[in-house]
Design a protein that fits this description.
The chain has 621 residues and is an alpha+beta fold. Among the domains are: 94 residues; 153 residues, Histidine kinase-like ATPase, C-terminal domain (Heat Shock Protein 90, 2-Layer Sandwich), CATH 3.30.565. Helix content is 73%, strand content 7%. Helix 12 packs antiparallel against helix 13. The N terminus is likely disordered.
Length: 621
C-alpha cells in the first residue's frame, strides 16, 4: 500500500510544486500525463516520460531533467526494480544539486528512503526521511514537511512505535491547514486512523474513517481502498460480519482497478472470514481461493524485488571495488611522477658531477639512499596492490557462492510444493483430501518463505565478506525443525527419521545459519539416497575434545573414490539421481565442507556398498 501511496505523492508534487524554474506547457505537461496513466496504461506512461525527457534535454534545464529522472525512479520503484530506481534517483540528485534545488533534493532523498523501507531496512529509511524533512524545513516548504512527516510516521509505525507515528502524522496535518483540499490531507488522515487501530483505539479510528468517506468527492482510488479496508477491519474485530464484508468488497473493487495486489489480498482475507461466519460458504470458498492466488502473486513479486535489491547491493560492492582501483591507479601515477622527477634530478646531478668531481661521491651516496627508499615504497605499494587483488577475487568468489546457496537450498522445498500441486491437478481427490493438501501446501509455503528469508538475511551478510558468528546451538531443536521442512519428502518415501528427542542439552558452538545449511544438506542427501520404507538414524556423541553428530542411512553407499573426494573437499561431486529420481546440483557437500572449516569442524564418512552410509560431523568441544 505504501509503495502505491507514494506514487500518488509524486503526482501531487508535480502539479503543486515548482521544483525550481521548470518551463510551463513543456516537460511538466508530459510528466503530468505520465503520472495520470501510471496505473492505467504503463506503456503510454513511459511514452510520455520519454517525450518529457527529450524536451528537458533540449531545454538544458537541470530542474526539468531532475524531475524527469525522479519520475523514472518512481516508475522503476513501483515495479520493484530497485537497482534501476536508485540509478535514476542519483541522476536526479545531481541535477537538483547543480542548482541547489532544496525541494528537489528533499524529494529524491525521500525516494531513497522508500527503497530502504520496502526491504525492511527501517533504520536506513528513517535516516533518509529525517534528512529529507530537515531539507524541507530549511526551505520552509509546508507540503514537503507534511510529506516528510507522513513518510517518517509510517516508518515508525512499521517499527511498532504507533504512538510516536500518530504524533508525527497529526503534526503533518497541521502544516496543511492552508491547503484544506490537498490530497495529503486525506492520506495523512488515513494513516492517523491506522495508527489509532494499532493503538487499539478503534472507536476513534472509525470516526476518522467515516469522516473521510464523507470527504471523498472525485478523489483517486488509493485513499478509498485504504479507508474502506480500515472500516472492514474494524467491523470484523466487532464481529459485524455484514459490514465487514460490504466494506471489504468496496475496498477490493477500488484496489482491483489499480491492480494493488497487496490490498486485494488483505481484503479478500477479510471477505473470506466474514462470508464463512455468515454461513455463505460458496462465497467464502471463492474468496479463499482468490486470496491464495493473490498470496502466490505476492510471493513471486517479493522474490523479484528481493533479487533486484540484491543486485543493488552487489552494484554498491562493485562501485567500492572500482573506487579502490581508482585510488590505486592514482597512487601509482603519483609514484611514477616522483620516480621521473628523481631520475631527472639524478641526470642533472650526473652532468654537474663532471664539473664537481670532488662532490660526486657524496651526491651518489645521497641519490642511492633516495633510490633505495623509492624501491622500498614501490615494493610496499606492489604488495598492497596484490593484497587488494586477492580481496577483490575473494569478493567475486563469494558472490558466485551466494547464488549457488540460493539455488541449492530453495530447490528442495519448491519440488515438494510442486508434488502437492501435481497431486491436486489429477482430479482424483475428494474434498477432504483437497483440504489436507491445501493445508500441506500452505505449511510448505510458509516454511519455504521462512527459508528464503533466512537465505536472504545470510546472503546480505556475505556482501561484506563471509562472517562466521559462533553461538551456542541446541542440536535437537535444529534437527526437529529440519525434519519438519523435509516432512513431505519423508512421507512420500515412507521413511522414518529417529533421533534422540530427550537430548535437549546436547549443544555445539557454531554459526547458526551455516550449521542449518550443513544439517539440511546432509539430512536431505540421506533422504534422497535412502530406499522407501527405510530408516534414517541421528545419534550424538561426546568425547573429551569433540561433540559429534552421526547421520546414518540405509542407502546404496559410496565407493572409496567418492568418499575420498568428499573428505578432501576438492571439487564438486557430480550430482546423482536419488532413489525416487530426485535431482540435485552437487553443491551441497561442497558447502558443508566450507562451512565446517569456518566453524573449526570437519566431516568424516563411513560407507559400505548396498548397506548404507554414516556421515559424521565433528565440532570442537
Amino acid at each position: 500500500m505504501i509503495l502505491q501511496v507514494y506514487t500518488i505523492v509524486f503526482i501531487i508534487l508535480i502539479k503543486t510544486s515548482s521544483f525550481g524554474s521548470i518551463e510551463p506547457h513543456t516537460a511538466i505537461n508530459y510528466l503530468n500525463k505520465a503520472s495520470e496513466l501510471h496505473y492505467v496504461d504503463i506503456d503510454s506512461a513511459w511514452y510520455y516520460i520519454e517525450k518529457a525527457e527529450k524536451q528537458a534535454i533540449h531545454s538544458k534545464n537541470p530542474d526539468s531533467l531532475g524531475l524527469v529522472y525522479a519520475k523514472k525512479g518512481f516508475m522503476y520503484y513501483t515495479s520493484g526494480k530497485y537497482f534501476a530506481s536508485m540509478q535514476q534517483f542519483e541522476k536526479a540528485f545531481q541535477q537538483f544539486n547543480s542548482t541547489n534545488n532544496i525541494q528537489g533534493l528533499s524529494y529524491v532523498t525521500n525516494g531513497n528512503g522508500l527503497i530502504y523501507q520496502s526491504q525492511n531496512e527501517l533504520l536506513l529509511a528513517e535516516d533518509s526521511f529525517r534528512r529529507a524533512l530537515e531539507m524541507s524545513k530549511s526551505n520552509a516548504d509546508s507540503i514537503g514537511i507534511a510529506r516528510g512527516l507522513l513518510n517518517l510516521g509510517y516508518n515508525l509505525n512499521l517499527k511498532g512505535e504507533s504512538l510516536e507515528a500518530l504524533r508525527l502524522h497529526r503534526s503533518g496535518l497541521s502544516y496543511l491547514k492552508n491547503y484544506p483540499n490537498h490530497r495529503f490531507v486525506l492520506m495523512i488522515k488515513n494513516q492517523i486512523a491506522q495508527d489509532l487501530i494499532d493503538l487499539n483505539r478503534v472507536d476513534e479510528a472509525e470516526t476518522v474513517f467515516l469522516e473521510l468517506v464523507k470527504q471523498y468527492v472525485d478523489v483517486n482510488y488509493w485513499e478509498q481502498a485504504f479507508t474502506y479496508g480500515g472500516l472492514a477491519k474494524i467491523a470484523l474485530s466487532r464481529n459485524d460480519y455484514l459490514s465487514a464484508l460490504a466494506n471489504a468488497k468496496k475496498s477490493y473493487d477500488y484496489a482491483l482497478k489499480l491492480n494493488a495486489i497487496k490490498d486485494m489480498q488483505r481484503t479478500t482475507s477479510i471477505m473470506a472470514i466474514a462470508a464463512k461466519e455468515l454461513n455463505r460458504l460458496p462465497e467464502a470458498y471463492e474468496f479463499s481461493q482468490l486470496n491464495s492466488s493473490l498470496k502466490d502473486s505476492l510471493f513471486e513479486l517479493s522474490k523479484s524485488q528481493s533479487l533486484s535489491y540484491l543486485q543493488l547491493k552487489l552494484s554498491e560492492t562493485d562501485k567500492q571495488r572500482i573506487q579502490t582501483e581508482f585510488e590505486l591507479t592514482k597512487n601509482q601515477a603519483l609514484f611514477n611522477s616522483y620516480v621521473i622527477i628523481s631520475l631527472l634530478i639524478l641526470t642533472i646531478l650526473l652532468i654537474l658531477a663532471v664539473y664537481f668531481f670532488r662532490r660526486n661521491s657524496i651526491l651518489n651516496e645521497t641519490l642511492s639512499k633516495e633510490l633505495s627508499k623509492s624501491n622500498d615504497e614501490l615494493k610496499v605499494t606492489s604488495e598492497h596492490i596484490q593484497q587488494k587483488n586477492i580481496q577483490l577475487q575473494k569478493l567475486n568468489d563469494e558472490k558466485i557462492q551466494l547464488i549457488s546457496v540460493i539455488s541449492h537450498d530453495l530447490k528442495s522445498p519448491f519440488n515438494s510444493m510442486q508434488q502437492i500441486i501435481l497431486l491436486s491437478q489429477d482430479n482424483l481427490l475428494n474434498n477432504e483430501d483437497h483440504i489436507k493438501l491445501n493445508k500441506l501446501l500452505l505449511d510448505q509455503f510458509n516454511k519455504t518463505k521462512e527459508l528464503m528469508n533466512e537465505i536472504l538475511e545470510w546472503a546480505n551478510r556475505q556482501l561484506s565478506g563471509v562472517k562466521t558468528l559462533p553461538t551456542s546451538i541446541n542440536v535437537t531443536s535444529f534437527v526437529s525443525d529440519i525434519i519438519d521442512s523435509l516432512n513431505e519428502m519423508c512421507t512420500n518415501k515412507h521413511i522414518s527419521i529417529l533421533f534422540p528427542t530427550e537430548e535437549n542439552t546436547f549443544t555445539i558452538k557454531a554459526d547458526k545459519d551455516q550449521f542449518r545449511i550443513i544439517l539440511h544438506n546432509l539430512m536431505h542427501n540421506a533422504l534422497k539416497f535412502s530406499p522407501e520404507k527405510s530408516t534414517i538414524t541421528i545419534k550424538y556423541e561426546k568425547t573429551n575434545k569433540e561433540k559429534i553428530i552421526h547421520i546414518c542411512d540405509e542407502g546404496d553407499g559410496l565407493d572409496d573414490f567418492n568418499i575420498q573426494k568428499i573428505e578432501t573437499g576438492k571439487g564438486v561431486l557430480r550430482s546423482t539421481i536419488g532413489t525416487s529420481n530426485e535431482q540435485g546440483t552437487g553443491l551441497g557437500l561442497l558447502l558443508v565442507k566450507q562451512f565446517l572449516v569456518n566453524n573449526n569442524g570437519y566431516l568424516s564418512v563411513k560407507s559400505e556398498l548396498e548397506k548404507g552410509s554414516i556421515f559424521t560431523l565433528h565440532f570442537q568441544d
